[in-house]
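Weekly puzzle thread! Below is a chain. First person to post its structure in token form gets bragging rights.
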Amino acid sequence: MRTALIVIDMINSYDHADAEQLLPSVRDALPGMLRALERARAAGSDVEVIYVNDNFGRWRSHHDELLRTALDGPYAGLVEPVRPDDASLFVVKARHSIFYETPLEYLLGQHGIQRIVLVGQVTEQCVLYSALDAHIRHLDVTVPRDAVAHIHPDLADAALRMMERNMGADVTDSTAEKLFG
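Winning reply:
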């Protein structure tokens, strides 16, 4: 079963209403995200790395512009470590789910991917909605709890429980042997 690591909304300038609440959690989750990215990239062609990122209402932008804006901003230190490499794929989204009106489902099908590992932000929003949309598409979902960031800890805990219980997601850690195995 082919796997994709999907990095959600990490190309971010943090110029939004909930940023101050989100930033501490992003800093805490960054090491787990980096572990997951390093492991996925080390797996080579067995694991596809796909970034799915909000376009922040910039309908004429593309991934290089989004990355440049984030790297030129005050929180570049949170973006630089997880920036896409030349082998990474990139999908722009406009809403919470990585699937909503994006070509992601088609892309996964073209690459024979049946299992996704979700990292990034925000656990109780984009990660949760993406896990649900993956579940209804009959994809296996894994979420390393130490590699997702939240705004509200209580809602994030509830979201992780919902993903595990209601969607059959494997909620684990970025160090788990089975993450890409």
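Puzzle host: Confirmed. Bonus trivia for everyone else. The first helix runs from residue 19 to 42.
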